Amino acid sequence: MSAVRTPTVMTPVVARPALKVTQGRVLRSEFTKFRSLRSTIYTLLTAVVLMIGLGAIFSALVASQYHTLGAADRASFNAVTPSLSGVLFAIVAFGVLGVLVTSGEYSTGMIRSSLTAVPRRLPVLWGKLAVFAGMIFPVSLIASFISFFLGQVLLNSQHIGVSITAPDALRSVIGAALYITVAGMIGVALGALFRNTAAGIATFAGVFFVIPPLASLLPSSVGSHVAPYLPSNAVAALWGGAQNVPNALAPWTGFALLCGYAAVLIAAAAWRLRRSDA
Hints:
Strand content: under 5%
Number of domains: 1
Largest sheet: none
Number of strands: 0
Shape: globular
Number of helices: 13
Distance between the termini: 71 Å
Structural class: mainly alpha
Oligomer: single chain
């Protein structure tokens, strides 16, 4: 007796189409990388604590010393400024975070994998910028509102606080978040341009914190014309920090100038990303 053989049916193998690289998928990838790094969370928390905590400290100090101010100082007093003073220090942490978003991948070599998956390269940079701005703006906006309301509570101990409906108060609160976001994007661009964390952070610190005080040492005939156009000074009037800036630019004019600086640096970073190897 011979066994009956059952014919084997060959199932055709259907090839799955390769996933197309789209900007949306690049965004999801960059968001995953952004939120999965511990350094990102720690730096973000540090920035928020600095912004809220230092704003509260400055507001408390101003409230305790308000009785010592002269008539002229009281007349020019802006209750919004002390509550948002933490922006001056928080911008350091936000800028460092921006630099790390791009330079961190170059230091670990992960950028090669990213660019292999996205051969056109530029979508990676656009994705990093979009994810950074999309995360930083809401966080800094919430921190800005908290800083404002907490500061006004402390200032009201001397009955010098203002409400959010006061002239320029809402603009200053939102302007602080806009300033932080664009300044952080400048950090992202510097990280991509220099591809080195130390160089990016040093340049960011120099532009925002070293050059402005040096400009004040110049003769007034020169310094008064240079200082208003420096990145940190240009946008000072937008969030209420223009008291020490001579000939400060109008709020939205200064913000437009800051955006222009960011656009130039982003364009330079994009050019280098396209022209040179990782």
